[in-house]
Amino acid sequence: MYMSPEKPDVDLNRRTFIKASLVLAGALVLGKVSGLLSLASAISAPSRTSSVRVKEYKNTRYGFSLMHPSDLAVAEHSEGGGAAAITFQNPEKGEGFQLFIAPHSEPNMGEVPYNGTQESEQHFESSGVRESLTPIAVDGAIGTAFYSTHAALGATREVRFVHKGFLYELTTPKPLAAWLGEIIQTWRFA
User: Fold this and answer.
1) 141: β partners
2) Residue 59 is part of a domain; what is its CATH number?
3) DSSP code of 118?
4) Edge-to-edge strands of the sheet including 166-173?
5) What is this structure's pTM?
6) How far apart are alpha carbons 73 and 84 in whole angstroms?
7) What confidence tier does 154 reach under pLDDT thresholds 50, 70, 90?
8) Range of the domain at 173
9) From start to end of the chain, where are the E strands?
10) Could you report the per-residue pLDDT of 111-147, keeping only the tens digit for each?
């Protein structure tokens, strides 16, 4: 994540903790039910049934909405300096994702604009290894989707894009990549 020097730093330890809680909460609940499971086997892709209900999440502060499964609990956490972390999770099912939003200064003249390419990604702090960088558009905002490996979180799917002065970063466990992709398709800016 790139933050201009004049912006306050966001507590990265808290951000890592929130991401880890998504993964661990699901693993702990599933582990109690079916014995000690490894983290990789505890989180599985959510079932695809037509009876899944959806709910709209609206955020007036950042001007967007998205549809998500209605059984996901939503929690908003202020990170200071105009940044926020929003978690959507169902620990019983081991499903969830985190949305991190932070102020972002548009690149100065001569810098590479954030357009989802390898060059533009080099201007942003990485949360780990980035594999399979893929350009993505989220309601017209251009960004990047990629797989990452994080020491505390394991394998993840991340999506980053910039819109009207904010960097948006979504993170979920890698097995939930397609599920997160379906949710992202419902994203709308106001």
Assistant:
1) 138
2) 3.40.1000.10
3) H
4) 73-80, 83-90, 95-103, 166-173, 154-163, 141-150, 129-138
5) 0.68
6) 16
7) confident
8) 12-42+54-189
9) 54-59, 64-69, 73-80, 83-90, 95-103, 129-138, 141-150, 154-163, 166-173, 188-189
10) 334 445 555 444 444 445 678 899 999 999 999 999 9
